[in-house]
Please model this.
Amino acid sequence: MKKFSLIVAVCANGGIGIKGDLPWRLKQELKYFSRMTKKLQDATKRNAIIMGRKTYFGVPESKRPLPERLNIVLTRDPGANTYPADVMVCTGMQEAVSKLDESPLVDEIENIWIVGGNAVYKEAMQSPRCHRIYLTEIKKTFECDAFFPEITDEFQLVKNDEDVPEEIQEENGIQYQYRIYEKVSK
Model:
């Protein structure tokens, strides 16, 4: 049973999005997201990213499905939209992780990343499979209509991976910092 990690950028008021888009323009932060969700130890494998339907369609059409990763879209109504053949569509988180546990996917997927939105993050954080939250803390408030769930005391701040900078980053006058929270066994 593979564990998974969440990756998210959150502004000072807990916001993660507005009208299906990101409220900020941070190219380096998007590159970080891409690098982290593509990073492999074994070059013969690939990573899976799990997202809700709104998150998937929030990605610009020219950039979806996100390349070099298995894109898994969660939707209650799989027939309502058309998806490319290489996108796996599931009706919920349980179906998605069950499929990832089956052959041949269990052997070809190295890491599983949860990439949004709110309901998907919330369900993932409650799962025993949840290992870490890779959170970019944006030190500014933006108008948002989608918010990240509260990080409970089940998670504790840990030292960043060696390839994740600890210091505050700045881009377009916006400061942000990479944080990693790990779920603690109780």
Remarks:
- Residues 27-38 form the longest helix (12 residues).
- The chain has five helices and eleven strands.
- The helical segments are 27-38, 53-58, 93-101, 105-108, 118-126.
